[in-house]
Request: fold
Amino acid sequence: MAITCPNCKKGTLKKGEKMVYCSEYKPTKNGDKWTNEGSCDFRIMFDQSKIFGKNLTPADIKNIVDGGTIENGQKKLSLDLDNKDFFVKIEKEEDEDL
Reply:
């Protein structure tokens, strides 16, 4: 995935087993806790099934990094660089009153 990181603009996105992450993201386990020793903490988990209702594909992640939106029923998922915990935003469409 030779895509420039949308967060730091230095690294490139890499596909891991459970997520897509910035090449500048360097997780290290200290005892029971994980810390980031890199300069960027950008990552998006593939498994979004609990909140969004589906697992994301690498193509889905490329779509949202490029500014697109993914829909699943009444939910929409998009990139949110202000959300430093998940880097995605999930919105639910409200039903219109008749």
